[in-house]
Amino acid sequence: MLERLNEAMEYIERHLDRRIDVSDLARIALTSDYHFRRMFSALAGIPLSEYVRRRRLTVAGAEVLAGQRTLLEIAVRHGYTSGEAFARAFRTMHGVGPGEARKTGASLRSQPRMSFRLVVEGSTNMRYRVVEKGEFRVVGRKARVPLVHEGVNPAIAAFVRGIDPETLRRIGELSDQEPEGIVSVSDDLAASRAEGTELDYYHGVVTGAAVPEGMDAIDVPAGTWAVFENSGTFPQALQHLWRDVFTQWFPSNPYRSRPGPEILRTRLSQDGSHADAEIWVPVERAGT
Asked: What is the pTM of this model?
């Protein structure tokens, strides 16, 4: 898998002066568009689109300083429809406009080329199982919140605090299958998975029951799920598990992620510092 990812990275380098379609990269990596985006973001730490933008502006910066092409030629060469759009993007990354950079020979920022390699540490023992699950629904309360990669998500924390105990009791009574009890469900995330992009967050249960009046719900079709178990400091251990699923488990197993909600079942210690958790990730066999 990593070898294929590095072939896709080479493809990016060869096509920085033209449109890059994620489907071409996914085809090189022998995976789906959806899984390629997720794998890249987990491994690189930035969305694919942001990496391509930074690489283009790095190469464009070198061309600006070289002075062999006009600024407009450089802008068009790297996919910008106008000099103004190029100048804005250039200033955002480099902190200086292209005209000023050319005149003064200013220092510019650089996004290095990325390649991926597997570092075997033997420090993570991942507990997982693969489950075939029939169709179900998530029922509870829903909010649109920003994505937070590290630490407690304040929008989710505030939303959950605002749900009254009686409503939580009613939601909890609807639980009738795995994962049992109140769960946290993330759905409709941006393809980039960038910090600050929004997602639908459900505080609810997995059930086959009808949706009570006043509740929110999402119907989930039958499919395969990889279930990962984790215990540790909350929320850091859980966030690190999300990372490890995509940087360690997927490259080593014949599965890829597929669109669908991601489900987290958490049981906190009394002081809220420790959690035992299950993460349910929708998957499919690679090559299907």
From this structure: 0.73
> 3-class DSSP state for residue 273?
coil
- Backbone angles phi and psi of 276, in degrees to 5: -105, 130
By the 8 A CB rule, do 139 and 216 touch? yes
Pairing of strands 255-257, 223-233: unpaired
Phi and psi at 273, nearest 5°, equal -95, -15
Strand, helix or coil for residue 97: coil
Residues 229 and 247: their CA atoms lie apart, in Å, by 16
pLDDT digits (tens, 9 = 90+) for 204-224: 999 999 999 999 999 999 999
Q: What would the pLDDT profile of 58-88 be if each residue is shown by its tens digit? A: 999 999 998 999 999 999 999 898 999 999 9
Contact 40, 26 (CB under 8 A): no
Strands 274-285 and 262-268: antiparallel
